[in-house]
Amino acid sequence: MKAILIAGALSLLGTLIGTRFAISVLVKKNYGQLIRDDGPTSHHTKRGTPTMGGLVIIVSVLAAYFIAKLATQTQPSASALLLLFLFTGLGAIGFLDDYIKVSKQRNLGLRSKAKLIGQTLVGLIFAWLAIGWEDGTGRTPITNAISFTRDLGGWELPTYLLVVWVLLMIAGASNGVNLTDGLDGLATGASVMVFGAFVIINIWQSGQNCSFNPGPKCYEVRDPLDLAVVASALTGACFGFLWWNASPAKIFMGDTGSLSLGGAMAGFALMTRTELLLVVIGGLFVVITASVILQVGFFKLSGGRRIFRMAPLQHHFELLGWAEITIVVRFWIIGGLCVAAGLGIFYAEWVTGT
Q1: 89 falls in which pLDDT band (50, 70, 90)?
Q2: In whole angstroms, what is the distance from residue 166 CA to residue 164 CA?
Q3: Cα 145 to Cα 63: distance, rounded to the nearest angstrom
Q4: Crossing angle for the helix pair 186-207 and 254-271, to the nearest 10 degrees
């Protein structure tokens, strides 16, 4: 528990202080955000705002985790190391995308095909290691079973389909956060709630783990307490970054932050055996992603008609005349309700055993 508190506090301080330093450096280098001309006109005032702030989040999380392990004199677990690899690997792809945009001064960074190849490569390495890295009892960080609040009996996948499932989870979650990151503080604040939920879930799974507290309701989850340390570091880092990212944003996380945070969410869902529950906990990201899918699909099928004035969904409300801060706060409320519902379902399953 001490490591959880240390990681959360250090990552919070890391982004609070580090982001202020990053803003000054990025401004001097003129690494500012480019704004789409076809987006809401109110966004034109944001042109030139420093981006790539996700780098501060990544560095703060990594530093906080390893310092917490040193302070408590405990070894990093395989699950935590794999999750940090996924988090950092996707962040590196996002950084390349952001860097090309700001250095070339164009709205297009990595080509979509190149970005997909990068995400797939990181996902394949993660899946390969997570499937085969056994502990002394033969448990691996992820299993072949599809899960909701725990593994679902009779839903086991062959290994090749499991790899596909892992890649779909990573792509869906990382792109979901990326699509949500369109208004000041929206994705950061929603991410705080999701990672906070995984702190609670991991601590609960640690206390009810089959390795220490065997019983009919115990959880077959590997390294849950160490995963809680990572979740705490991510929660603290997003909190500290939100100080500077809240409206009016002094810095954006960019794809560096959104891809890495989304990948971490997928990693937590896979390792805590809450894969389908992530649809509820991350409900805000699901709704926003669905709005894009519906918009594109309807546009193609109807010969150019649209469901929303603009997708993702938050921009539809902007074009309806809602103030940006109003949209962000109301979407945060929706995100919070989704997280509360997810935690309620998780606990109710344990109470009822069904």
Answers
A1: very high
A2: 5
A3: 33
A4: 20
Tell me which residue of 58, 61, 81 sits closest to 257, measured CA to CA: 58
Residues 195-220, mean pLDDT to the nearest whole number: 89
CA distance 90 to 121: 10
Provide the pLDDT for residue 44. 43
Q: How far apart are CA 186 and CA 136, in angstroms?
A: 42
Handedness of CA 75, 89, 265, 274 (dihedral sign): negative
Pairwise CA distance, residues 163 & 12, whole Å: 34
Q: Residue 203 has which token pair? A: 């601590």
Unique residue bearing structure tokens 């945009």: 101
Alpha-carbon gap, residue 231 to 259, rounded angstroms: 16
Distance CA 241, CA 248 (A): 13
pLDDT at residue 47, rounded to an integer: 65
Contact 53/14 with Cβ under 8 angstroms? no
- What tens digit of pLDDT does each residue of 92-122 get? 999 999 888 887 766 666 788 888 899 999 9
pLDDT at 194 (0 to 100): 98
Q: What is the dihedral of CA 151, 153, 156, 162, to 10 degrees?
A: -20
DSSP category for residue 154: E
Burial class (CB in 10 A: 0-12, 13-18, 19+), 317: buried
Residue where the block lists tokens 């990181």: 122
